[in-house]
Design goal:
Fic-like fold; about 0% strand; about 240 residues
């Protein structure tokens, strides 16, 4: 069968950007601190990713000294970060179940009706597109990790399937995809920081992807790959500090 995402690699500059992103992440995994396990790097990366993800959506990026987080967006992002490792098997096998769980964790303090937690909207087209996304995650494509990660991330931002905490959900799904594809198996990198630092460009690129035009999709893919490289540099800084 034809790989549905393979044509994206033919867009100008995308294949090179994907390769550069891969190389930057693999280099972080080869650092001495991470060859020995990388748990300290991963732990710090997880917290930084959650803080940046919350801040992108207007949450508080700062964790109080006594760890008593009251901001609902940050609380949700931190819950999601803590659960990601345990969700990895479900993501590989049944990604829609994983998305439901991520939303429940992310939006628990944001919605008044608990019955909507983990339930995608009934809007026309959301269900079928989520099903297609699940097929990609579970083996319908063999494109490199940076490309599949960008597509998962961009599609969830475009769909906003739950109506609350969708940004945190999308970035968590992208993080799971980086791990599951073998791009970043130890979850060392922090592309979320890059998205936060360039939040206007992030929003604009995501809107371009949502249009489905070749230029819009290409811009998002290139932006995402660049963020992976920036996230790898962030990871190197963490690794140097903990080694």
């Amino acid at each position: 069968m034809t790989d549905p995402l393979a044509p994206l690699l033919d867009l100008e500059g995308v294949a090179a950007a994907v390769k550069s992103a891969q190389d930057s992440v693999f280099a972080v995994h080869r650092l001495p601190a991470n060859l020995r396990g990388g748990s300290a790097t991963a732990a710090e990366a997880s917290v930084r990713a959650a803080r940046a993800s919350a801040a992108i959506d207007g949450g508080d990026a700062e964790i109080p000294a006594d760890a008593s987080v009251t901001d609902p967006i940050l609380s949700g992002a931190l819950r999601v970060a803590e659960a990601l490792e345990s969700l990895l098997p479900t993501w590989r096998r049944a990604p829609l179940q994983a998305l439901a769980r991520i939303h429940l964790l992310a939006a628990a303090d944001l919605v008044s009706d608990p019955d909507v937690l983990g339930r995608p909207k009934n809007d026309e087209g959301v269900g079928p597109r989520l099903e297609l996304l699940a097929q990609l995650v579970t083996g319908a494509t063999s494109v490199p990790g940076p490309l599949l990660t960008a597509v998962v991330h961009g599609e969830l931002l475009a769909l906003r399937p739950f109506g609350s905490a969708d940004g945190v959900v999308a970035r968590a799904a992208a993080r799971l995809t980086m791990i599951a594809t073998g791009l970043d198996p130890k979850a060392l990198t922090v592309p979320e920081v890059a998205f936060f630092r360039r939040v206007r460009q992030y929003a604009a690129a995501a809107e371009g992807f949502a249009t489905g035009t070749p230029d819009g999709v290409r811009t998002w893919l290139l932006f995402s790959c660049e963020a992976v490289e920036t996230g790898a540099r962030e990871a190197k800084g963490i690794s140097d500090a903990v080694s």
